[in-house]
Request: fold
Amino acid sequence: HRYEFNNKYLDIYKESGMSLVGINTKDDLVEIIELENHPWFIGTQFHPELKSTVDSPHPLFVHFVKAAIKQSACHSKSK
Reply:
């Protein structure tokens, strides 16, 4: 892909609740974003799946599964 975060809109995104938590210092480009006040929202420009394996998963996948289990448990209790 050839998409990238447009730094021209950096302040607007920050003011709207987006946290820019991973910056590529070489190119000064946003690589990872998170949304505040959301159970689990992360967007990445890198590929954590490339070195992730069943025996050694990338932390993003581990935390995603944990958040999904927690969310599922919350919904089960409310029924």
